[in-house]
């Protein structure tokens, strides 16, 4: 499902308000119907089933068109950034947790600059260098999971926490090049990120920005975690920058943080990322790669479990694609 802010076309017509959509109240719109922010996408899905693949919703005073129409969503993404802007709610939400300087909240030339830096850091060549790491990390976590599965034979297993560990383990290695505060016993990063993204989710649908005036205990906990993360990433970045300054211009970075830092060192000021952009993008990339991948994996396993014939088909396709090596041919 894709949401997009009302572009100039939509803004100059009354199309949005003529589309079907949930009931709305003055000032809060339909926010009161969303309830738990963690259910945001489930609620959108329920509304899509009820109102169709294109519906209108007001959240606060902002008006949105929500599309689950694949053709339209593709068109919207292809027309970024000039033709289509993201909902203002995205930049506002990132701003509420002091992480606004990232690709997902950027528009226009600023988006283009950040997109170029990130696409370069995520290039097939750089990801290809990570193949061994991904392979070993998956193997290590599968071995650990195997023991847990054997210990709970006959009982249902909630795979989502496992898939979160899987994707966080891999994405943090891609971004930082190592474990970054995750050990077998203590997955500190995962707890910290959950707190950060739960704060992002609840501030996104909060009717008033109360944290600007006073802080609840959960807001103080969030501030502590965010400040610690910023301090640690900045420390790493400072050391990495010193090493990168010694490297030749055509040096290929080993991880995404180094890739972003190479852009902080860019000679052309219009192309250079600021220190804050590097920090916000490092955290945003972990967010982009964690829940998306883990939820997809969990759903895939659940559906494969229900459809054993597809499971068989997938197994044979993988056997052919990996030619018995267990390695993907495209990485
Ligand atoms: C199954 C897994 C994934 C799903 C379903 C997914 C979904 C999406 C979607 C829907 C967008 C478009 C968002 C928008 O423009 O508003 C997007 C963009 C993006 N995703 Fe993912 N993603 C996944 C995995 C990843 C991973 C692993 C990474 C990074 C390591 C990543 C990095 C990005 C980046 C950099 C963008 C571009 C944002 C931009 O150009 O503004 N994604 N993804």
Any key phrases for this structure?
331 residues, mainly alpha, Cytochrome p450, 2 domains, three-stranded antiparallel β-sheet, 15 helices, 3 strands, 62% helix, globular, binds protoporphyrin IX containing FE, Cyt_P450_E_grp-I, Cytochrome_P450_monoxygenase, Cyt_P450_sf, iron ion binding
Description:
- The longest helix is centred in the last third of the chain and has 32 residues, at 275-306.
- Strand 2 (54-59) and strand 3 form a beta hairpin.
- This protein is mainly α and 331 residues long.
- The radius of gyration is 22 Å and the shape is globular.
- The model is unreliable at 1-7 (pLDDT under 50).
- The chain has a 3-stranded antiparallel beta sheet with strand order 1-3-2.
- It is built from 15 helices and 3 strands.
- It has helices at residues 8-11, 15-18, 31-34, 40-51, 70-78, 88-96, 108-121, 124-129, 131-151, 159-176, 188-204, 217-246, 256-264, 275-306, 308-322, and strands at 2-5, 54-59, 62-67.
- The chain folds into 2 domains: 2-85, no CATH class; 119-322, Cytochrome p450.
Put the structure in a nutshell.
The protein has 331 residues and is mostly helical.
Report the portion of residues in β strands: under 5%
CA gyration radius, whole angstroms:
22 Å
**Average pLDDT value?**
85
Question: In angstroms, what separates the terminal alpha carbons?
Answer: 28 Å
Inertia-based shape: globular
Determine the number of helices (DSSP H or I, runs of at least 4 residues). Answer: 15
Q: What is the CATH fold-level name of the largest domain?
A: Cytochrome p450
Topology as H/E string? Answer: EHHHHEEHHHHHHHHHHH
């Amino acid at each position: 499902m894709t949401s997009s802010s009302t572009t100039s076309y939509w803004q100059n017509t009354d199309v949005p308000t003529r589309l079907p959509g949930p009931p709305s109240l003055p000032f809060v719109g339909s926010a009161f119907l969303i309830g738990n922010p963690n259910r945001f996408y489930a609620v959108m899905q329920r509304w899509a089933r009820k109102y169709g693949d294109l519906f209108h919703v007001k959240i606060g005073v902002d008006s949105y068109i929500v599309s689950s129409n694949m053709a339209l969503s593709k068109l919207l993404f292809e027309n970024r950034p000039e033709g289509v802007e993201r909902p203002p709610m995205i930049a506002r939400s990132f701003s509420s947790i002091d992480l606004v300087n990232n690709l997902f909240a950027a528009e226009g030339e600023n988006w283009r600059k950040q997109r170029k830096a990130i696409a370069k850091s995520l290039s097939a060549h750089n990801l290809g260098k990570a193949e061994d790491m991904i392979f070993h990390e998956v193997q290590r976590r599968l071995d650990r999971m195997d023991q847990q599965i054997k210990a709970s034979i006959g009982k249902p297993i909630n795979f989502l926490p496992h898939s979160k560990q899987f994707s966080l383990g891999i994405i943090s290695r891609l971004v930082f090049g190592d474990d970054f505060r995750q050990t077998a016993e203590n997955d500190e990063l995962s707890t910290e990120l959950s707190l950060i993204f739960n704060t992002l989710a609840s501030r996104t649908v909060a009717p008033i920005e109360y944290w600007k005036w006073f802080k609840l205990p959960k807001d103080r906990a969030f501030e502590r975690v965010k400040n610690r993360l910023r301090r640690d990433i900045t420390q790493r970045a400072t050391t990495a920058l010193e090493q990168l300054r010694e490297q030749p211009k055509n040096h290929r970075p080993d991880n995404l943080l180094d890739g972003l830092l190479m852009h902080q060192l860019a000679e052309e000021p219009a192309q250079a990322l600021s220190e804050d952009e590097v920090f916000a993008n490092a955290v945003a990339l972990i967010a982009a790669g964690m829940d998306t991948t883990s939820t997809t994996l969990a759903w895939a396993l659940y559906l494969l479990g229900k459809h054993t014939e597809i499971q068989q088909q997938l197994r044979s396709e993988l056997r052919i694609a990996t030619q018995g090596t267990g390695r993907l041919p495209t990485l």
